[in-house]
Amino acid sequence: MENPIHNFIAGKWIPARSGKTFETRNPATGHLVAQCADSNEEDMNDAVAAARDAFESWHRLPAPRRGELLFRVAERLFHDKETLAKALTSEMGKVLMEGRGDIQEAIDMAYYMGGEGRRQFGHVAPSELPNKSGYAIREPLGVVGLITPWNFPMAIPSWKSFPALIMGNTVVLKPSPDTPYTAALFVKTLEEAGIPPGVVNLVTGSAPELGATLVKHPDVALISFTGSKATGGKVAVDAATHYKRVALEMGGKNAIIVMEDADLELAVEGILWSAFGTTGQRCTACSRLIVHAAVKEHMVSMLLDRMAKLRVGDGLDSSIDIGPLINNTQLERVHELVQVGVQEGAQLRTGGHPLTEGHYAAGYFFAPTLFDNVTPTMRIATEEIFGPVLSVLEINSLDEAIKVNNSVEYGLSSSLYTQDINRAQHAMRELRSGIVYINAGTIGSEVHLPFGGIKNTGNGHREAGQAALDTFSEWKSIYVDYSGQLQRAQIDTN
Ligand code: UN1
Question: Do residues 301 and 161 share a domain?
């Protein structure tokens, strides 16, 4: 796309009304990726107005036709997968293999939700009265506002827009200021696939209050937000003040439990992938290893061995395992929490510091970090870190492991490694999180099952799967009385 990158409103790429732009840079090299529209409330109002105008015709388009458009989006994403993945890695930093995964998740979601064009089933139910029928159908909400994070800059906009669109809503997308370019590439793909003007609108900006203008806008029916707990809380308050629906997807403090009977080699693979993949910057990342005392020393030494071989660097280089953190604020936060861990008495076994020498100097790199002898109440064991930092907590039984797992304020993803089916069944019931893995790490959700968490991770909504349709629609119950007489529910009981 040509620089600068404009907003996409009513089917046109237009600059911010103020004419201002802001920069997005590669977190590995510091190179400029793009200049993007630095929008304000006026631009947001324009986008919402365009989405409102487009709603009438879009939701009347038969859902299978909307589905066909999503299939075309899937095909274009597939066709451009490599180019998009490289652009995504250049802006966000995750290694290219994972950049491809991010695009693939969008492709999967486009096909899955495209199929919903011919499903989105409702309910047909009997009536308690004779000659009367009842059924329930889904209807769109109207204009929906999507506020998306930087860690899955293509996948998460797709998780939110595709179910919204297939249900007949129109969209205003406000991406993170760290990844506006990837969001623009996403929207460009939709444009090229033939999405009608106004159905999807993009407003980028660097001001922290830009999202709030979307949340407070009276013509926006729902806000779907993924990001930090702190911002999510503000979104919820603003949404409540304006009586609107809000779906929040916030933090995690996910754990992998390894019992003494587990396949330890397999567990090590899952731990490394879950803790250090995406440089630990997934809501689902594993930041706690809860391990049985009988195998702890062995696990820690296997992990240290493997961690020493992890290569940190520019994600575009195929020999690299771990990319940079997204920005300096995140780097400082990770570093600060590591220092807190040391002060609290955890044993730092490796890493624990930014990487600043030589080719690292231009980026936000942090050494893969392992803490041993962590106790459940330490801050490194309770707060989301969003970096390559793993804390090891020792336990002596499955019940104790489950208790430690469940002791945090979040409840997104939990994992258990064991060979014992009874233990697995027990844990599947007792682990308090929206996602549970058995003999796999904490990351790797698939698009056709619900994604989301309990406790302070979310507010009861789910993304992906059939559950996403509930977020982006209202139910309408319809009763048809063909008896030709007054029939009174709950009264005419004989
Ligand atoms: C996120 O971390 O915000 O299960 C999303 C996973 C991915 C999605 C993660 N499919 O890790």
Answer: no
